[in-house]
Amino acid sequence: MKRLGWTSVGAGVLIAVATGGVSFAQQGAPQPPTRVISKIRGDLYKFQNNQHNSWFLVTSEGVIVGDPINAEAATWLKNEIAQRFKVPVRYLVYSHYHWDHARGARVFDDTAELVGHANMAAEIKDAVANIQAGVTRGLDKNKDGKIERSEAQGGTAQAFDDLDTNRDGAIDGAEISGDVRPPESTYTDRRTITLGGKRVELIHPGPNHSADGTIVYFPAERVVFGVDWINVRATAGNLVTPAPLDQWLRSLKLVEALDFDLVAPGHGNIGTKADMTDQVQYFEELIKGVSAGIAAGRTVEQLQASNLLEKYSWWPGFAQGRNANIAAAYQQLSAGSR
Ligand SMILES: [Zn+2]
Ligand SMILES: [Zn+2]
Fold it and tell me: Which pTM value belongs to this model?
């Protein structure tokens, strides 16, 4: 990997970029990772590893980092922090237990306390034991307890070779979630981490995308960070989870009610408070529109062909995401009305 070091890209934004040579792409081999560190506000930085975002906050007494993403990404980040800021990482705060955000925290464990929600350890255990639990729910079509290459989709397909550690052409729960280390200290509703005069608030939103979610709120920087259920100018992702839609809506409203200017999601670009309000309204209109459709005896296909949520059609990936959201909401809300 070639490291290009710290570069200034416009108004006070410091970035560090890691890229390999183009020859990888030319040979059709996997692309080297894109890793970028950029300032969000004050001493709060965004860490991007390909499609995944994390964060870190620098203080005089050490650094607080967010999701490790994976061991390789965490190792890169650890070196960048050490070189640039010359203070140890004191805390690591998990957003939730899913493998694509939470692997590799062991890299920071020499100096950092790993912090997560009280439900996280049980969620990891469940995901290791049962491929039908967690983020891989529904992928194991032939129900053999593993995800074969042909069954893998999305992020699981992209990371297949990385996850298939024993190279048997299938990945099981231990291969997917085995490198997700449980938190060393937990909280239930709220927790404040104070370091070097700076403050990070952890807030549990209740069950939504998982049962162990954490909203990370930076009151001085006026920034809020959340992963997979907090989106900016994007539809709601996979709604086929155990949590009822009204719980999702409740958690989005909890975020909206915080006093902040910027919302930093685990995927995609940073947005404003207005983007968070849009996300809340999208959810409200989804629930209302689909409920009304069910009451009127309309089918999923009819609702997908209607102009429901059309005002968000300028969001990237809208058509596919919206149709999936309508189908998931229809399934859940019609099951509830039976
Ligand atoms: Zn997730
Ligand atoms: Zn994600």
Answer: 0.90
